[in-house]
Amino acid sequence: TGLRRMILNRFNPLIALFDAFEHLWEASLSQRRLAGIFFWVYLLALALIQARRAGLMPSALAAITPSSHFAAIQLAFTLILAVEVIELIMSIPSSFSRSVGKQFEILALILLRDAFKQLSHLPEPVDISTNLTPLFHIACSAAGALVVFIALGFYFKIVRRISYSSTAPRENQAGYIIRKKLLALVLLGIFAGTGLVDLFQQAVYGTEHHFFETIYTVLIFADIALVLLSQQFMPSFHAVFRNSGFVVGTLLMRLSFSTSHPWNAVVSVVSAAYVLGLTWAVNYFPPDKMDTKRSEKNENVPQAGKEEKDGGQPR
Q1: Residue 159 phi/psi, 5° resolution?
Q2: Are the C-beta atoms of 268 and 144 separated by less than 8 Å?
Q3: How many Cα atoms sit within 13 Å of 240 on the Cβ side?
Q4: Closest-CA residue to 157 (of 104, 211, 91)
Q5: In whole angstroms, what is the distance from residue 59 CA to residue 118 CA?
Q6: Of 70, 121, 206, 252, which sits with the fewest C-beta atoms within 10 Å of its C-beta?
Q7: What percent of the chain has pLDDT over 70?
Q8: DSSP 122
Q9: pLDDT band at 172 (very low <50, low <70, confident <90, very high)
Q10: What confidence category does residue 164 fall into, taking pLDDT thresholds of 50, 70 and 90?
Q11: Would you say 147 and 153 are in contact if contact means Cβ atoms under 8 Å apart?
């Protein structure tokens, strides 16, 4: 125990770094400034696209600038989605239930982003008389986002925070949180590094990379690491089943990102329904009802009514 405490203390500077970033990120001033930056980036994108269409842009810059004004909308929602992913990573040290709720939010935003992304396939001015396919994809993505949003509302209504580690020593609980913060810090580094590399390659070579797909793949491995980590501190069957089930639900969510239209919306709705069903099940059958050791103990205890009926002599 002393050796474990000494090892964990070596990570105190990293934990302090994570806590400082979390405090800065969650400050209302920071959120307002981010919203203002996104607004001006959106206007700048519209201006650059218009400059390219008017032939007022150097050829090198025009080669990496979209020609459709709808690309500015897609950029704005991409920035919003990036913020949501960061908030998802920041929620890792908290409970599994909160993290899953954040996954729902990201899924709804991704579907809306896909709907706006389809606008880039439309001509300017908008004319859908010759091609209804983008309209169909927009409708599917928008409907899927609405269903996921409704599922999110029901999820927060029925979810209950079950503290599996409340009976563990306080030192173990602190060690569990420290490990989750270290994992979140590593994921933040991967997020920043991948984003910078993709921006550089797109700016220099004009090649589009699948940034979010890469991050979602990394998060799949992070989810598995969380399940294995939580099992050290919450080894009960109920806890392992719930946490593993949540990971399966988020895995379905992320697999939906790589499927084609309209199956991405279908898989997203299925994943939301699965998480809702899992949440209801773990609430309806709490840990005390699923404790096999307690059930065996109760079966071995003689029933008081039968003892009285037989004159106090157990049968």
Answers
A1: -70, 140
A2: yes
A3: 10
A4: 104
A5: 26
A6: 206
A7: 80
A8: S
A9: low
A10: low
A11: no
Q: How far apart are CA 250 and CA 295, in angstroms?
A: 32
214-256 pLDDT, tens digit each: 888 888 888 888 888 888 777 788 888 888 898 888 888 888 8
What single letter denotes the amino acid at residue 245?
G
Instruction: Provide the 3-class DSSP secondary structure of residue 310.
Output: coil
Cβ partners under 8 Å of residue 268, min gap 6: 107, 111, 144, 147, 148, 253, 256
Which residue type is seen at 145?
A
- Please give the structure tokens belonging to residue 67: 């020609």
Which residue is listed with tokens 């039968």? 306
Please say whether the beta carbons of 109 and 149 come within 8 A.
no
Residues found in the chain: 315
CA–CA gap between residue 152 and residue 165 (Å, rounded): 26
Q: Cα(109)–Cα(102) distance, rounded to whole angstroms? A: 11
Q: Which of 86, 92, 125, 135 is nearest to 106 (CA)?
A: 86
**Which pTM does this prediction carry?**
0.76
Q: Residue 87 contacts by C-beta under 8 Å, 6 or more apart in sequence?
A: 25, 102
Instruction: Assess whether the previous peptide bond of 262 is cis (omega < 30° from 0).
Output: yes
Query: Hey, what are 281's tokens?
Result: 């099940």
The residues, any chain, with a CB within 8 Å of residue 258's CB and separated by 6 or more, are 213
Q: Which residues contact 216 (CB under 8 A, 6 or more apart)?
A: 254, 257
Residue in the structure block whose two tokens are 């030192």:
171
Residues 6 or more apart whose Cβ sits within 8 Å of residue 237: 290, 292
Residues 227/82/136/273 CA torsion (nearest 10 deg): 20
